[in-house]
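ESCALATION

Customer reports they have been waiting on this structure for their group meeting. Please prioritize. Original submission:
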Amino acid sequence: MTAVNRVAIAGGGAAALASAILLAEGGVEVDVYELRPELSVLGSGITLQGNALRVLDRLGVWSEVCALGYPFDGLSLRAPGPGAPVIADLPEVKTGGPGYPAAMGMSRPDLARVLLRRAESLGVRVHFGAPVTGLQETPGGVEVFVASQSAGVFDLLIGADGVNSVVRSLIGIEAVPRPTGMGIWRTFVSRPAEVEHSDLYYGGPMYIAGYTPTGQDTMYAFLVEEAQDRSAVTETEAVEIMREASLAYGGPWESIRADLAAGSQVNYTWFTAHVAPAPWNRGRVVIIGDAAHSCPPTIAQGAAQALEDALVLSEELLAAEALGDPVWDAFHARRIPRAQAVVEASVQLGQWQLDHDREADAPGLLFGIAHRMAEPA
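Update from on-call: job pushed to the front of the queue and completed.
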């Protein structure tokens, strides 16, 4: 017997689908309600650290992830300018343990498709074009309203509906993502043969320039600048802005610029961060993933933390016989300090760059967080 028998999940991202998979494996009836009309096929790449890979293996999708992604160990730092010389090769901590690579790059749409297929194979009902718009606690559950119509009464509603979470607002949690002062240009391009792991360039006109392989033939590239209002920029202008901003960087950036000139798409977002204070639940409703905490991608732990939320929540729900304070106390104890540490470290790394702090111990901070993440959630 488990604490829940029927669960509704708002959102269709990694945290939502991972929760659905794990609960369905445990015999729970699961309905996922996603605002978008269909699974998005747009997006650039994602870096999955070892602790994220450990959870993906637990989800039963490891072989597919390996087939579609690009595993790698290590990180190189390059100098800006012609030739982009490598100035340091840094080993990475295998946060998933010795059985997994330090990291894997992957296309975001590919990861979404893999998780969706796995969820549906377990009987999870995924409803697209189905926004959660309201909820009402009942004596024995929570009534969930989708597009203003009742979808029924559930034992639990999981709000895994992203940084702009409706569920978070519905239960009165006021913490919302705040800009950190940086903006990022991203593009999805072909992978030159010389790119075998992530490279980062510090210096030059951008705070950070870098790229990560996501497959045998693909990678995503990014440039981090001081946050600006880019809302009026057209797609054509965005491509040209990114191309021009990258001119200070050599090496594989020559190939990236060629792809930009050939029509690669570009997107721009601001870095934001937040951590909702405890508790993340209100009665039979709980938020996880980006709804509960978000951070800049400076240490590439966002996806890992969302997946860990899903894993820990599912473990606690499936191990308990009733939904009450012991479940929530255990969940919060395992998740909030860990997520808080990641968010604070991610923001600190960016702030040191904004402050041009040359004395900051960025490597020490990175390795400290990595060693902490190597311990299972």
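Sent to customer with the following note: The chain has ten helices and 20 strands.
Escalation resolved.
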